[in-house]
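Submission sheet (multi-component)
Chains listed below:
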Amino acid sequence: MSRFFTTGSDSESESSLSGEELVTKPVGGNYGKQPLLLSEDEEDTKRVVRSAKDKRFEELTNLIRTIRNAMKIRDVTKCLEEFELLGKAYGKAKSIVDKEGVPRFYIRILADLEDYLNELWEDKEGKKKMNKNNAKALSTLRQKIRKYNRDFESHITSYKQNPEQSADEDAEKNEEDSEGSSDEDEDEDGVSAATFLKKKSEAPSGESRKFLKKMDDEDEDSEDSEDDEDWDTGSTSSDSDSEEEEGKQTALASRFLKKAPTTDEDKKAAEKKREDKAKKKHDRKSKRLDEEEEEDNEGGEWERVRGGVPLVKEKPKMFAKGTEITHAVVIKKLNEILQARGKKGTDRAAQIELLQLLVQIAAENNLGEGVIVKIKFNIIASLYDYNPNLATYMKPEMWGKCLDCINELMDILFANPNIFVGENILEESENLHNADQPLRVRGCILTLVERMDEEFTKIMQNTDPHSQEYVEHLKDEAQVCAIIERVQRYLEEKGTTEEVCRIYLLRILHTYYKFDYKAHQRQLTPPEGSSKSEQDQAENEGEDSAVLMERLCKYIYAKDRTDRIRTCAILCHIYHHALHSRWYQARDLMLMSHLQDNIQHADPPVQILYNRTMVQLGICAFRQGLTKDAHNALLDIQSSGRAKELLGQGLLLRSLQERNQEQEKVERRRQVPFHLHINLELLECVYLVSAMLLEIPYMAAHESDARRRMISKQFHHQLRVGERQPLLGPPESMREHVVAASKAMKMGDWKTCHSFIINEKMNGKVWDLFPEADKVRTMLVRKIQEESLRTYLFTYSSVYDSISMETLSDMFELDLPTVHSIISKMIINEELMASLDQPTQTVVMHRTEPTAQQNLALQLAEKLGSLVENNERVFDHKQGTYGGYFRDQKDGYRKNEGYMRRGGYRQQQSQTAY
Amino acid sequence: MASRKEGTGSTATSSSSTAGAAGKGKGKGGSGDSAVKQVQIDGLVVLKIIKHYQEEGQGTEVVQGVLLGLVVEDRLEITNCFPFPQHTEDDADFDEVQYQMEMMRSLRHVNIDHLHVGWYQSTYYGSFVTRALLDSQFSYQHAIEESVVLIYDPIKTAQGSLSLKAYRLTPKLMEVCKEKDFSPEALKKANITFEYMFEEVPIVIKNSHLINVLMWELEKKSAVADKHELLSLASSNHLGKNLQLLMDRVDEMSQDIVKYNTYMRNTSKQQQQKHQQENMQRQSRGEPPLPEEDLSKLFKPPQPPARMDSLLIAGQINTYCQNIKEFTAQNLGKLFMAQALQEYNN
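Outcome: structure written.
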């Protein structure tokens, strides 16, 4: 029966393909009608197929079956559940039962269940073994069934007296039931089959489908094949399937219950099976069609075309033959397609193809660029929509298509300067074909490009960075950049300042992390020939990225009104400066921006960018030999121990438990693609080496000072780890190298230190990663020499009365002026108690270092000071008065504290020296 | 022959080790109500203690032993002693009481005084004011009222003067310990400070006349060089060690005070808060505010830190300070002497 309706609707939908009808017909017009009819129809089939009695009884038998199964596997909990359902179902079937009498099988299950439960109940051993739930269920079920069975006592006793008979009866009854139902089924099937056949013959003859006639066979084929597909995937028709299955089950159940089928019945059953199958197939088909129908009604008729896509490709069948393709028609069509967008069950891939088809048609019919632009916008939007999930990324082919499409769009836009594109153009005010006026199209090229950029990031995030695939994807980066550049050029002409800012930022984001090798090369080779040739060269090679960054960022600084873009631009600018070793510019910009004060209010991606910038800044400072600055810049990132996370270069396993799935997804989305990564080992090495250069002399200078503070906790941690090693082999990892170097430096042995810091292994791991590796290495050697000299002087000054600077300069392979300047500096800073003897070029030590006892006494005094302070605090508390007398005294005490400092001590000592 | 010698002592005179009894009892040390006013130690005991340390004690490790003797009038005579075996990890189940009883029984068989009158302990730079010492001395004194603890300082002895001191707990401290309440209030009530924890009992070393004669003779024969260790001017090591130890104790003291401070703050804060909260609640219910007493029942105040430890630390610091004072005074004396000598020679 359903066949009939399907056919009808089928032909109708087919007819709507003709287009003319559709144009005149309001889209929403037939929206609710047919599905409504259909649903009624569906219900009808069920109601007609089985009588109410059958239906109820089938329900009951089904439940009984599950109960029996549960009984078999001793799942009492399940039994209980099902029993409750059974009771309900029985209640529903009450009216029928009243008419027909209590069904035998019902009595039987009740009796059996009770017996079964009693048996279980008696089986103490088994009960013990049962799990808690089951045991509980058992007792409740037992009580329930006792209560319930009281109503059926007479039936049950009679059943128990004569179980055989009642079983037979039951079987008979079932047979009858199933016969009846199968008969009905048959009837119905007969009809449906007939209708189906009829439809087959009828459909092509429908006048609206004339144009499909030739393709009929093909069409059918495709439909069939699709049927198979549906069988496999079942995604679209899963609902119908499950329903179907239920029906099947009931039918089967009734059949299974047959005890002794006669041959006749056997045949019938076989026949029925076949029919069933056929019916099912038809049903499914009809279901699918129905669905399509629904979708058609929802979003234009195009879904129907899906079946004929290959066909359509060969011959555009978007519009009926002979239809005059006008703007109105095309736009109408477009709207229809777009309405399906975002709806469930819309085949997005097909939608895209359809749109592309539409472009083709529009192009073929010379509908003007406006329409094409419009459609293109929508194609790109659909491409973006293709993935329903935000986390998943575009497939490569989609991505390729998207890039092509944007390129084409840009081509058109460049070729036709009279097209205005904008977000703020309303649909109504669009002008797609009136050639007299400038064309106006709604849509924002900038948003598209931004989205494209996001998609690109997503693709990069989701590709294994060590695979060839990543490289392949990375090649698209050039294309992305090219597009951004084009859009930039376009927007520079037409866009508002805000838009320009946004596209500039995009450009910046694709520029800032790249090291400009060309510019670097140019810098390295000083102008040889005339300035003119150099200029030519520069022109040939295009703009320096530095100049480009400068230009873009300045524009943003000046014009941007949203804080975020400016912040990002500044950070990128700093990063770029730092990357190209323009330390002072980078630092000044960082300080001027005051970003350090308020970056914690920014959103996480900006914070990640900030962290990246700081790290780059630190590395830059290191390259310049500014160890202290490098250390300070890297301190925040390194001391947390979460550099990886802070730089957005990976998630920490440790905190994995702390966050839920949602957060993790969010964090994953924040990750920086691999090609932007900053080498973490390099980062750590730079940090540790700069910490070493600072810390080792400091440690040597304050060896006996109780108030000595650590400059770098992390460095100390590494040192301690190194010390804990029971057996010290030659260093393997970068950290071990640094630790070994630190130890050498502590002894003032700069040569060993040097060999630990700069060797083959470390070169490969770290130093070669710098663009100017050799320069860095020379800087590093010099730093090591200087700091070793300082350490040496701190550590061993007490054993020297005087030392010749020449000796020192030989020892550390530094030239005399450098040694002189280092020592002078130390003397000025009161780090070294010595004086320089100019004529002999020697350092004369002053024996003013406190002895061990003096040091101890100083420490003791300090400790006592704090003790007194603590004591006073207790006293304050007792008194309940903060401030007052003791407060004053405390301040006084603090004033005196100065004498404990080394400088003060020395002064005192020099006064009392004899 | 028991000579008393003050710490600031002219070192040159009391050179003989046996003669150098280290009874530096301060005036307040002897308490009037105790039966024992003086401790008389046999030379044998002193030698045994020294020998015990030399054979078994090393560095910071301490040696301990039992003192035997008897009380005669107001005098505690220590006539013999025996050492405790050193504790090692292996014999954790070693029964000390059993060992003591057996030792004493055996000694009785050879007619040696077997009255348990206390115990002795070696010390490392005078760091003996500890909880362990307090506890065991308390149990001794609890059982035998007269018992004392002899503290032997091997390092000082090595510098030329025997250092042996007898201590016992003051009656006040005994009472506090009996009650086992070391809360700040209890200590305040007992009016106990670190100065009145231990009292030193003056000691006298007694030898038989024959031995005394021998001593004189030995002294005559001994070369001058044997006595020179007393004149050593090297002071830094000892002083440094003492300072280090003192510093550690000061650190502990600081921590203790901080702990106490936090406790005080917490208590007052809690009291205020809880009081306010409770009263607010009561007010909202229209009840009169709670009286103070109920409050402490309602809310358990934070556990007050035991103050005994800080008392002990204070006592220890005091000892160190005494030590350092003594030592520096002696050394200054030596320095001046050396200077004078040099001037004289020149």
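Remark: The two ends of chain A are 123 Å apart (CA to CA).
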